[in-house]
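hey can u check if this looks right to u? its 371 residues, i copy pasted from the old doc so theres a chance i mangled smth
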Amino acid sequence: MHIFNQSIRDQNFVQDPYPFYDRARNLADVVWWEDFKMPAAMSHRAVRMLLSSRDLGREPLKTPVCPAHIAEWQANETNSMLELEPPRHNRLRGLVLRAFTGRKVAATEPQTTALCHSLIDQFPSQPFNILNAFARPLPVNVIASLLGVPNDRCDDLLMWSNAMVAMYQSGRTKQTEIEANTSTIEFTEFLESYISHRRMNPKTDLLSDLIAAEEEGEKLTGAELISTCILLLNAGHEATVHTIGNALKTLLPTRHRDVTTDLIEEVLRFDPPLHVFTRFAYKDIDCFGTKIKKGQEVACVLAAANRDPAFVENPNIFDPLRKPKQHQSFGAGIHFCVGAPLARLEILIGLKTLFGRCPNLHIVETPKIRR
């Protein structure tokens, strides 16, 4: 297996990883990424194969040892749909899909549009951080409403979510872990209290549906209910936040303002919100000439797959008129992002409203990437 040496903490890599991805992909479809200490799929065909294969999954074959200072965070993860395989995964995913039918996603459009205008109305006259003023509050308010959680707690939800999601970012430290564990405890306590209230006052939202499923028995346990709510609130806004930020970084210098569904797909292909997602091999696998051993963890580099020249022509050029192909930004297989339709709608409405209301919006300071 070809060895790829590249520190994920190198600031040249952090700010623009794509030349490094190109170098790794030129070595082979799958390389040994020394910094991750695991094989990394770099080509579109390899990533697609590994994400779609039932010979790999999110659950490790051996239960990892959990340090005491992240016990609550880990306990929540073990009940998360994102970390599970069938049959538990299928049961939880089927329940969650109730919130993301075409009808329910489309029904969020008026609220999303109104929220965009409200946020823009509050923009200061001086230069400001548009992630904090627009990209972050938009999706967390939408997913909170869809789930049935009070919108006046969105600041807390963002704080807890950011701390928990930091566990998946490079540069994770013990302090990161402690903060994630504390946030998990606080998030869980809030949900337990609110679920108790909602049991007595059910409504037509996803939380009420999930509570009903739990009360019917065998469909959802109490721990799964909490973990599913946390997952939806965390994952339900992360992709939208980062895609809006990436879109503005790419589009504002070009002055391109014609926002279409094709443009959104190109934004997602060109610079996806999540670059790496991992799987565990459940048997020995041959991936285009590379042997992956049973039990081994594998990194699927989604961002590298999206810029594979075997997938699209001129992959490192952002083309707003490019017709979309099957990029990997939302994953593939049974773990394909369940909230993708909602994220796409939020990004479309958000950018359209933003450009319509703020035609002179421009970058005043070079954006810095955090991964």
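The first strand starts at residue 3 and ends at 4.
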